[in-house]
Amino acid sequence: MKILYLFLTFIFTVSCGPAVSQKKIKEVEIRKRECYLVHGTCKTSCNSWEYKYNHCETEPCCVVRKYIKPIIQRTTTAYTKVNYNNNTLYNATL
Q: Would you say 27 and 35 are in contact if contact means Cβ atoms under 8 Å apart?
């Protein structure tokens, strides 16, 4: 009977939660995703114009110091003022 209790105790303690290696892999994936969100790259060393944001697995996440968000240019234009004259015809070339 004691062997059964020891076996059940072992099974319950081992099966509660993910293994340590799975937690570590998940943490590394989260750090890499955060690095890519700030437009960084995981490299062995950062250049002088970059700073270390956090660490991907063992290498640092290098982010460019002056990141400028790209400006989205609107391609459509709305005409707000229409000039109709009685003197010019609609399809006439001036």
A: no
